[in-house]
Amino acid sequence: MTKTNENKQVVDKISSDKKSIISRYLLFLVGLFIASMGVAFSTKAGLGTSPVASLPYTVSLLSSILTFGGWLNLLSVIQITIQVILLKGGCNKLEIIIQTILAFVYGYLTNFSCYLIRGIEVTTYPMQFLFMILGCIILAFGIWVQLKGNVAMLPGEAMNRAIAKVIDKSYENVKIFFDIFYIAASAVLCLIFLGRLEGVREGSIIAAIAIGNIIKFYNYIFKRVFTGKKKQGD
């Protein structure tokens, strides 16, 4: 093999790697937008915010030091710190930087998604319940797409992944645990300091239990379809 051919192969490989990375980041951003739409639908339902958002939302009601978005960013910083502590030398510094940036991008996308469906009127409880279910399905799909992009994750999901890796448990089960934890902490804070529930209702509890299981279902369907195609091609 000549040196010219070797150089061409190297250039082709670099070009292919770049295209792969760009495609994966585009897939991730699509997942991020889908997830933001899920949050928007859940918010429109009025039956409780998504589990991860419930805690910063509750704290924003108790303290005006930061806005809801500010407390959400602070939670992201805590989640990133936990990852760094758990993964130690195995922590990807570039991914941590990207997570920090995406935490702010996700906030803007969520606002934009809420803006897109601002004109929809949800007036009855059955309609609220339908929007809540749609929110869970859409949010879970957005998270699943982000996982398939496999380039970065939002701090909360990345923390779940890091913990799952360290304790050798499935990501979905760890997510279910922390979703329930966020809601329980939010409910306790509301009852102690406000005497009522704000941003935490039946929809929050259903989301905490359902989203991780819906992601499992997406994985199951994907594996069945992918395996089926492989068998047909054999």
Let me know the largest β-sheet: none
Any idea how many domains? 1
Which segments are poorly predicted (pLDDT under 50) over 5 or more consecutive residues? 7-12
Shape: globular
User: How much of the sequence is in beta strands?
Assistant: under 5%
Order of helices and strands: HHHHHHHH
**Count of strand segments:** 0
Q: What can you tell me about this protein's structure?
A:
The protein has 234 residues and is an all-alpha fold. It has one domain (25-233). Helices cover 82% and strands 0% of the residues. The chain is built from eight helices and no strands. The protein has helices at residues 3-45, 51-62, 68-87, 93-116, 125-149, 155-167, 171-193, 202-233. The longest helix has 43 residues, at 3-45. It is globular, with a radius of gyration of 20 Å. The two termini are 33 Å apart. Residues 7-12 have low confidence and may be disordered.
